[in-house]
From TrEMBL:
Pathway(s) the chain acts in: Cofactor biosynthesis; pyrroloquinoline quinone biosynthesis
Domain Peptidase M16 N-terminal: start-end pairs: 19-148
Ranges where the Coenzyme PQQ synthesis protein F C-terminal lobe domain occurs: 421-553
Domain Coenzyme PQQ synthesis protein F-like C-terminal lobe: 616-677
Superkingdom of the source species: Bacteria
Cofactor: Zn(2+)
Family: Belongs to the peptidase M16 family.
Keywords from the named record: Hydrolase, Metal-binding, Metalloprotease, PQQ biosynthesis, Protease, Zinc
Protein name: Coenzyme PQQ synthesis protein F
PANTHER family for this protein: INSULIN-DEGRADING ENZYME-RELATED, NARDILYSIN
Biological role stated in the UniProt entry: Required for coenzyme pyrroloquinoline quinone (PQQ) biosynthesis. It is thought that this protein is a protease that cleaves peptides bond in a small peptide (gene pqqA), providing the glutamate and tyrosine residues which are necessary for the synthesis of PQQ.
Length: 775
């Protein structure tokens, strides 16, 4: 059943967009305020970003412990906000039954914020910590340097995030400016609120209108037009002025074509002739007829950028004369697939931004013509728009009778009515070959990954944990098609994939680097660094003859299983069973090479039989961990805690990234928190149990739960998990805390610093960028 949409404007001027999508399992809201960093007084950079932070600190009606963030997180939902140049966005996703509570908290905190000086002072330090992290990030600095290419005087060149020195809290003029910015822009006429969910349009309207009426009445305030972008942009940065309406959507079509890796298009030609290994195309700015976007290229060693850009100009020339109707039809099919695959939050955010998942309309077509006309062009290259993308076909390929491969398990955790399927395969690979051959195979799959991303199919090939893992998720027919293309590439990578690959184009922030290494650490991998040994096709052939694999298929109906079985006849290796990770010991891993900030990730495996108590303990600790480490102690801005299953092992995970607190200081506070008494809260216990209902879990969450259960070799159902959580008692929590605090508990700690002297455990080191574990 297709989505239905209703749009209306309330008496206070607020515009509502309601979307009824029966397939959704969650509901979401996205509120866009048409004001951002460039609308705040230039005298106080960061004022708009600072105000965004202050909204989340609680109000008289909904204090911090019952505010939007705690409310949504307690329900297993998502919540966030973003301040851009000319817009500020607030968005959350919850189970449908919790939408009303989330909407009331969102609207109330924006309409009636508490701007007390004490809370401003504390939050300014958080803003300053983010500024320090930004100033130390090579990726952020490269982005800032890129924006220096625009004309002097354009606000894009200026620093807008704020810090301790740009936010003078004691200055009455600053406080007046803060209040005036809120009064001027946080009123009905300046806002668009979009809501999506499985509820009917009438139900959604009844839920959203009362909280939306909390905003003061107003009309749309005029945002200052920006000065010209200028013409000093470099060859990979494209600036456009005086573009017609619909330019942002027109650019989306162009970017979609740029990311098309099929023969005949620019990406395929650049891979073949210029050694292109990766591309990232990003819209940097779109406002008042101005459009700024950038192409970031990762090329092979010694390959000049100029050749790839010359080819691009030739492709721009071809696009000016291409069959627009054909381009737009393909774009429309891609957009419809994206809409079908989108989460409730993604749908709400697109609706609030006025960027629907559709082909270009007449206005968009005019903007596309204007966009192409303003791009450099030449006659270089031979181009051809490909036939329709097979990944978008909905029919399954016709196959004969095939039995399921012996290493494949079938999960019924996700009903086929969800129209979402996933295949996960894990090969057990000798550690000496895992890293070196992974780079070759990942490069072989790169063009297919690009095609899958365009067609809303998730294709991943990772080397974390005990071997190689291939994941593919999306519409069942697309998954079968993608796997059919992927397996021959894995068995026989193209010749150019055996050349040395360029290093990663950007480094992750430290805490993300630790998260990436956690599966290796939990698997207990002690890998001697292999000194640049070159691999070959014969070596890969021998490996595929020897390795064993196991896999899991989720969400496939009988016909799709049959088609998948036929495709998997070409799966290399021999079917087997999951291999549990070896017994864990207390270890500290030092992860080097990622940023200058401190970061610590603690993973505390749960004792046998205490999974349910661990889930509840993690749930009850989530708020206190955030309150203590981020709000009270201000140890860092990236603070989180949760129960995670990694390599089939359940564990309590706590992570912190800090610009000033060392990992041993953070660890001390984590231990202190775990020593504090945690009281069983029955309503919270019920809320947690309710999260393990397939009806409210996202499809991706169900797939991940099924896979981790498969890896743990402990068959269970979601109903088992719910019942076990509801059976936890106070003494179970206390017994678990005692077990976790035992000095011999097998904690796995990852940090970008050495272990503190009193951490009695084995110590290992992980070296970037290969991130290899060394004994």
């Amino acid at each position: 059943m297709p989505d239905t949409i209703r749009q209306l404007t309330l008496a206070n001027g607020l515009q509502l967009t309601l979307r009824h999508a029966p397939r959704l399992k969650r509901a979401a809201a996205a509120l866009r305020v048409h004001a951002g960093s460039h609308d705040a007084p230039a005298k106080w950079p960061g004022l708009a970003h600072f105000l965004e932070h202050l909204f989340f600190l609680g109000t008289t009606r909904y204090p911090l412990e019952d505010g939007l963030m705690r409310y949504v997180q307690a329900l297993g939902g998502q919540v966030n906000a973003s301040t851009r140049e000319r817009t500020t966005d607030f968005f959350f996703e919850t189970p449908p039954t919790a939408l009303a509570g989330g909407l009331m908290r969102l609207c109330q905190m924006l309409a009636e914020p508490d701007l007390a000086i004490a809370r401003q002072r504390d939050e300014r330090e958080v803003i300053h910590a983010e500024f320090i992290a930004w100033s130390r990030s090579r990726q952020a600095q490269a982005h800032h340097a890129l924006l220096q290419s625009v004309a002097p005087g354009h606000p894009l060149r200026a620093f807008q995030a704020g810090n301790r020195y740009t936010l003078p809290l004691q200055d009455p003029a600053f406080q007046r400016a803060l209040s005036e910015f809120h009064r001027r822009y946080y009123q009905g006429g300046q806002m668009v609120l979009a809501v999506s969910g499985p509820q009917s349009l009438d139900e959604l309207e009844q839920l959203v209108v009362p909280p939306a009426q909390l905003f003061a009445s107003g009309t749309r305030a005029l945002q200052r037009p920006p000065p010209p972008l200028g013409t000093s942009c470099n060859r990979q940065l494209f600036a456009h002025e005086q573009m017609p309406a619909g330019a942002e959507q027109a650019l989306a079509l162009l970017i979609s074509c740029l990311n098309d890796s099929r023969p005949g298009m620019w990406l395929a030609a650049a891979r073949q002739h210029c050694g292109l290994q990766a591309i990232k195309v990003e819209t940097l700015y779109a406002f008042a007829g101005q459009l700024l976007w950038h192409i970031d290229l990762t090329l092979g060693a010694g390959m000049p950028t100029g050749q790839a850009m010359a080819l691009l100009h030739g492709w721009f020339g071809y696009m000016q004369n291409a069959d627009f109707a054909q381009l737009n039809r393909e774009f429309g099919r891609l957009q419809r697939r994206r809409e079908h695959s989108a989460s409730a939050m993604e749908l709400a955010r697109r609706d609030s931004a006025g960027l629907p998942f559709t082909a270009l309309d007449t206005q968009g077509q005019h903007a596309f013509t204007a966009l192409l006309a303003s791009l450099p062009r030449s006659d270089l290259g031979r181009w051809q728009f490909p036939l329709s993308e097979p990944l978008l076909h909905t029919r399954l390929p016709e196959t004969g009778e095939c039995s399921l491969p012996g290493g494949l398990s079938i999960s019924d955790a996700l009903p086929t009515a969800r129209q979402h399927a996933a295949l996960l395969v894990r090969w057990q690979v000798p550690l000496a070959l895992k890293e070196s051959l992974h780079a070759v195979l990942d490069q072989a799959l790169a063009p297919l990954k690009a095609r899958c991303e365009r067609a809303s199919v998730q294709l991943q090939f990772s080397g974390a944990g005990q071997g190689w893992e291939l994941r593919c998720a999306g519409v069942a027919s697309a998954v079968v098609t993608a796997i059919g293309i992927a397996l021959p590439l894995l068995k026989a990578p193209p010749a150019d994939c055996w050349a040395d690959c360029a290093g990663p184009s950007s480094e992750p922030m430290p805490i993300r680097a630790l998260l990436e290494q956690l599966p290796n650490a939990v698997a207990g991998l002690d890998v001697q660094a292999v000194a640049g040994s070159r691999q070959s096709q014969p070596q890969l052939d021998r490996l595929w003859q020897q390795v064993t694999w196991h896999g899991l298929a989720v969400g496939f109906d009988a016909d799709a299983q049959q088609a998948l079985s036929a495709v998997l006849q070409g799966l290399p290796g021999h079917g087997g069973a999951p291999v549990p990770v070896p017994p864990l010991t207390r270890r500290w891993y030092t992860v080097g090479g990622y940023g200058s900030e401190h970061a610590l990730l603690v993973f505390c495996p749960l004792p046998a039989g205490m999974e349910a108590a661990g889930r509840l303990l993690a749930h009850l600790l989530q708020g206190p961990v955030y309150q203590r480490l981020r709000v009270e102690l201000q140890l860092g801005y990236a603070v989180f805690s949760a129960l995670r299953q990694v390599e089939g092992v359940h564990g309590l995970m706590i992570g912190v990234q800090s610009p000033h607190a060392s990992p041993d200081m953070i660890l001390e506070q984590v231990v202190t928190l775990l020593r504090e008494h945690v009281t069983l809260d029955v309503p919270s216990q019920q809320l947690l149990a309710d999260q393990f209902d397939e009806v409210v879990m996202s499809n991706a969450e169900v797939v991940e739960w099924a896979w981790q259960t498969h890896l743990a070799t402990q068959p269970r159902t979601l109903d088992d998990v719910r019942k076990a959580i509801l059976n936890v008692r106070q003494h179970d929590l206390e017994r678990l805390q005692d077990a976790l605090l035992d000095g011999q508990a097998p904690w796995t700690c990852l940090a970008n610093a050495a272990a503190p002297p009193d951490f009695q455990a084995q110590q290992r080191e992980i070296v970037a960028p290969g991130a290899t574990l060394l004994s």
